[in-house]
Amino acid sequence: MHIQDAISLRASYGRPISMTGDGSTLVVIGTSTGTLVLVDTRFRIELKTYRHFPGHAITCLETYTADSVLVGTAAGDVCSLSLRTGKWPTCVCARSLQQLKSNEVNRRLRVNAIASLRNAYFISAGNDSMLRYWDLDHLENSYVVNAIDSSATPYSSYRLNDTVYYCENAPAPPRSPSSPRVFSRAAAVAAASAAISDAAISANNARSGGPIVSVVVLPSPMPMIVAGMQSGAIRIFV
Q1: Hey, which residues does 79 pair with through a beta bridge?
Q2: CA distances to 19, 78, 137 from 59, in Å
């Protein structure tokens, strides 16, 4: 293979950080300024741009449906973007409602990887070493998996313009050092909104081998999640 041609993005978009495609000639590129660019690789042209409204760096992208992508950010949010309408209907947030309203960024919550499953569920992972299982249609089925356990997680909802945010409250403490059952269906419970403490994240990093930098979902022969750690370890969750 050789370089046939190049597509030059505008300098104002920032550095390209992540990309995703649907198998056609269209590619979505996420940048350091929170800009997303839809390009046609066949004709080497820029078709459309989108702006992640809080302006956080786009750290990872995943094709979700035929006309939507999941957008992970440096702030710990994962938002769904409709490429057709340009709207952001839903955002799920590792940060608390208070952090969201103040647009606070905690680098420990940065999302490094997203893997979707059956266009309805997806996994996000990042600097806090936790896997998050999200079900946008039934949020009560969503939960967090840390180094030694999985737990139901309560959420606070918040609507801003045309977007509904679901902000994560403090997770329940680990129950036992057993292998996590990632695909169990834990019911969410009500709790007061609180941010994940840096101390809790540091403790989880120490147990797990550091931040998660990549993740993939394998649906068969049995559902499992494979996570690549910054330490070099590969962890398998079943």
Answers
A1: 71, 91
A2: 9, 10, 24
SS3 105: coil
Query: Which tens digit of pLDDT belongs to each residue from 23-62?
Result: 888 999 999 999 999 999 988 899 999 998 778 999 999 9
Contact status, residue 135 vs residue 117, Cβ threshold 8 Å: no
* 183 HSE (CA, 13 A, CB side): 13
Query: Is 154 within 8 Å of 188 (Cβ atoms)?
Result: yes
Give me 202's structure tokens.
């540091």
* Region label for 235, one of left (φ > 0), alpha (ψ between -120 and 50) or beta (otherwise): beta
**Residue 206's CB: how many other CB atoms inside 10 A?**
11
At position 157, the amino acid (one-letter code) is S
What is the dihedral sign for C-alpha 8, 12, 16, 21?
Answer: negative
Predicted pLDDT of residue 210: 85
Q: How many CB atoms lie within 10 A of CB 143?
A: 23
pLDDT digits (tens, 9 = 90+) for 64-101: 988 999 999 999 999 999 999 999 999 999 888 888 88
Residue in the structure block whose two tokens are 């129950």: 175
d(CA 165, CA 142): 14
Q: Are strands 111-117 and 212-218 parallel, antiparallel or unpaired?
A: unpaired
Beta bridge partners of residue 215, listed in sequence order: 227
Q: Classify burial at 14, counting beta carbons within 10 Å of its beta carbon; exposed 0-12, middle 13-18, buried 19 or more.
A: middle
Task: Round to whole Å and give the CA distance between 169 and 193.
Answer: 5
